């Protein structure tokens, strides 16, 4: 506890609301990514030549990030829309949402993963309980010193707890950027690569709105504390799943989860990773 407080002293907490111009840079795509409506809307586009992507201007160490996304409509097979937090380097930490497209009317897959100190292999995949291409839906990452919680429209779908006490590394020392991209992955994305991208349907477009974050901005020089005096503003830093959250996760996992590394006996014949019995 003392130790994490020391870390927190180095950061400045900010509440960011909604302006893509202020908080993000378009990082690639040669004009295919666009910030519109005075920073309220961002669109990514993919065609045969290139995809596109953006990244936060700041790095964060802990945060609660909400992003509304409307995924590529129609035939999106072969496309992948990503939204993730990541640090850099070979022992990086990463928290991933990836949306794997599909033929019209067939379900997207929401793919999730958590990397700690360069090691991932913690995939869980879900179908969604709505059509993610019809409207904007909120995809959230809560990352605080106790746990990482992935949520969809406020419903938690996955939790990765801080289990350092059991010897499992937890992301808490490396600041991360927020990234998003739209790219072609038809070698693996749709039905394991069986369905290819139909380029006659290009450009493929995903849209983003209502970016909202409470987060600790990384700054090597700032002496500001991460915590403000306002306990409401800081509540996310100690937020955890309550009993309603626990039962929502169970509901999602029993009805919509289609892959869980923690039950993949073929992949882990010698026994599951240690966090599987503890999360
Ligand atoms: C696409 O649809 C097929 C058939 O319903 C399904 O098996 C698959 O999981 C869906 N999603 C992806 C990304 O392949
Ligand atoms: C918090 O409150 C204390 C005492 O009321 C005050 O001295 C301090 O400046 C406040 N800090 C912030 C970040 O508002
Ligand atoms: C604390 O923060 C919340 C949310 O930003 C705000 O609504 C409230 O007015 C703040 N309270 C004080 C005492 O500043």
From TrEMBL:
Cellular component per GO, a single term: apoplast
Stored PROSITE patterns: GH16_1 (PS01034), GH16_2 (PS51762)
Active-site residues per Swiss-Prot or TrEMBL entry: 94 (nucleophile), 98 (proton donor)
InterPro entries attached to this UniProt entry: Beta-glucanase-like, Beta-glucanase/XTH, Beta_glucanase, ConA-like_dom_sf, GH16_AS, XET_C, XTH
GH16 domain location: 14-208
EC number per UniProt: 2.4.1.207
Any matching Pfam family: XET_C
Segment forming the signal sequence: 1-17
GO molecular function, one term: hydrolase activity, hydrolyzing O-glycosyl compounds
PANTHER family: XYLOGLUCAN ENDOTRANSGLUCOSYLASE/HYDROLASE PROTEIN 8-RELATED
Known function: Catalyzes xyloglucan endohydrolysis (XEH) and/or endotransglycosylation (XET). Cleaves and religates xyloglucan polymers, an essential constituent of the primary cell wall, and thereby participates in cell wall construction of growing tissues.
Similarity-based family: Belongs to the glycosyl hydrolase 16 family. XTH group 1 subfamily.
Protein name: Xyloglucan endotransglucosylase/hydrolase
Species annotation: Nicotiana attenuata (Coyote tobacco)
Gene symbol of the encoding locus: XTH23_0
